[in-house]
């Protein structure tokens, strides 16, 4: 389509502009990379999104489903960005497959590492170094296919009276997983380093970290349910605990799938 002479047109769809933003596709006529206000808008958007996610659980889901999408980062974009940023910072917190295996309580995984290293004629240290290069990609894939899908199904079943399609459960699950990667995963990774070694103290710290992490997730779910559906504290707490407990086998399945797939394909 040719733009009318002398009339500003959208650089994306070429339709005439009646203002800064295109009425057809929403394209901003001011280039984001050169407009200081656009940068400020993006920073403000990020700040609002993180504040809602961490300080007001359920608000992001509520706003998105209510149509308030421009003020906040979209759910799937937020999920992908938090995963990417977590792995970008993984060198600082040492989130690696080898770090987890050094503190694992599962002998079967340790045995599998020894078997795979011997089959590849490598030392265990070199084998794990190769496995670490694949772990983040496989972990992200398993997270998307298993964890997000699992929590979506749980939310769809528990809140079927409120959400009559899949849009609400998917949005809720994506926001929860973003919270996990911003708060829970860094704390869990630090706990892994605390439980290295042998003895009763290792097991005590490990179990304490597991329970504290579970309580943190249950609290987030409880506050989110309160905001989304207006449930009273006892009922909201019961639902929050129920989602947390139902999510435990999903988390275990995802984690084992990521570890075993990495080890078996390295």
Q: What does this protein look like?
A:
The chain is mainly α and 266 residues long. It is built from ten helices and no strands. It has helices at 36-55, 59-65, 75-88, 90-93, 97-103, 107-119, 124-158, 167-194, 200-229, 233-265. α6 packs across α7. The mean pLDDT is 86.
What is the topological layout?
Elements (H helix, E strand, L loop, with lengths): L35 H20 L3 H7 L9 H14 L1 H4 L3 H7 L3 H13 L4 H35 L8 H28 L5 H30 L3 H33 L1
Helix pairs in contact: 2-8, 3-8, 6-7, 6-10, 7-8, 7-10, 8-9, 9-10
Q: Strand tally, please?
A: 0
- N- to C-terminal separation? 52 Å
The major sheet is characterized as: none
What's the helix-strand series?
HHHHHHHHHH
Return residue spans where pLDDT drops below 50 for at least 5 consecutive residues. Answer: none
Which structural class best describes the helix and strand composition?
mainly alpha
Helix content: over 70%
Gross geometry: globular
Count of helix runs: 10
Determine Rg (CA atoms, Å). 23 Å
Q: Beta-strand percentage?
A: under 5%
Task: Report the average pLDDT across residues.
Answer: 86
Brief summary:
The chain is mainly alpha-helical and 266 residues long.
Question: Which descriptors would you attach to this protein?
Answer:
single chain; 266 residues; mainly alpha; 10 helices; globular
């Amino acid at each position: 389509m040719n733009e009318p002479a002398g009339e500003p047109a959208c650089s994306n769809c070429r339709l005439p502009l009646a203002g800064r933003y295109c009425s057809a596709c929403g394209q901003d006529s001011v280039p984001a990379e050169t407009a200081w206000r656009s940068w400020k808008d993006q920073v403000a958007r990020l700040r609002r999104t993180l504040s809602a996610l961490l300080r007001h659980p359920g608000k992001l889901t509520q706003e998105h489903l209510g149509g308030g999408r421009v003020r906040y980062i979209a759910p799937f974009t937020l999920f992908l960005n938090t995963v990417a940023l977590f792995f970008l910072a993984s060198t600082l917190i040492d989130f690696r497959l080898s770090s987890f295996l050094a503190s694992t309580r599962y002998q079967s995984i340790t045995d599998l590492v020894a078997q795979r290293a011997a089959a590849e004629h490598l030392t265990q240290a070199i084998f794990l170094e190769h496995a670490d290069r694949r772990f983040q990609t496989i972990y992200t894939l398993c997270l998307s296919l298993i964890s997000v899908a699992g929590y979506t199904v749980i939310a769809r079943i528990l809140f079927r009276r409120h959400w009559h399609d899949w849009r609400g459960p998917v949005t809720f699950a994506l926001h929860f997983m973003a919270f996990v990667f911003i708060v829970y995963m860094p704390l869990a990774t630090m706990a892994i380093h605390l439980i290295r070694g042998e003895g009763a103290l290792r097991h005590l710290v490990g179990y304490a970290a597991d329970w504290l992490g579970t309580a943190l997730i249950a609290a987030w779910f409880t506050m989110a349910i309160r905001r989304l559906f207006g449930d009273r504290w006892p009922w909201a707490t019961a639902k929050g605990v129920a989602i947390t407990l139902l999510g435990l086998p999903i988390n275990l399945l995802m984690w084992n799938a990521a570890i075993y797939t990495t080890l078996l394909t390295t």
